[in-house]
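Dear support,

I submitted the protein below through the web form. The confirmation email said the job was done, but the results page showed an empty box. After a refresh the structure appeared. I'm attaching both so you can tell me whether what I see now is the final result or a partial one.
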Amino acid sequence: MGTILTRVSLLLALLLQAFPARAADGAKIVLAHGALNARIAPLWIAHEQKFFAKYGVDSTVLLVRQIQIMVSGLGTGEIDLALTSGSTLLGAVAGGFDAKMVAALNSKVTYDLVTAPTIKTAKDLRGKRFGVQAFGGGLWMGAMLGLESLGVDPQRDNINVLQVGNQSVIAQALEAGSIDAAALDGVFSRMLKQKGFSVLAEFGRANIPTIGLGLIVKTGLIRERQAALDSVLRGLSESVAFILSFKNKPVVLKTIMQHLRISDPTTAEEGYQDLITGLDKKLIPSIEGLRNAQRLLKARNPRLEAIKVEELIDDRMIRSLNESGFVARIQAAYGLK
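What the results page shows now:
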């Protein structure tokens, strides 16, 4: 255990060494994210367009791919907030970590169900191979909830769910015939559809509650740094309004291309469409979405059964920003209705 903690601390130190020490006034905030896709753009935009700074926060944004390191960083205080999935929060709390979700960027499943050309209906998935990134992850969660909405049960229908890799690898596996179906972002589903693959369902139309990306904090930080957290939520709210304002599309596209190292404008456009489709304007976490995650995950982790999901969400601050009219005013300033 000591060896693991030492490795975590060393890795976090390497990540943070390029940045100045935490400001003495406590206004510096370190935010981490584990995924690398267009849906992270609100965090990048809030930092790079100085929205966090506008509301009094000196922000640092880090990519921390390993969930264990991210959660450990939250525990030690080297990371203040993490943008990650509801399943990450559930797993951390089941392991004894005291954390809450204070806001969420999306509250519904937005993936498309993409299949081999020979698969024409949901019933045709019986006995087939279904690719996911990782069991318990956000993509797995969205896929399982989407299949459930179609009346498909992987266990009952003898569907072989395989861990394949990220969405790019999954798309390649579909093309190669290594798997028969997957739930994918529109950027991949549209590309595969042009190559003759079937899109059996657009789960975004079904309004299936989930939490793909939420803002997770150590419970103590909510009490100790309320002003800083309020500033982060204000900056994130303005970032969302900025992104949804069509006139800012060129800036958003440029940001996506830079962070994802995309040179093809068409691919960036697909990512942009995926981003704006799933964004929640109010940033209020979905309790039903977290309950869905708990329901699916407890078969793998029985300790989740005892967790009271409603106690994992502390949305008082983001609700206050909505109820005070702040969010509506910001959106109106960017021409949104």
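Response: this is the final, complete result; the empty box was a page-load delay. Confidence is low (pLDDT under 50) at residues 1-6, 13-26.
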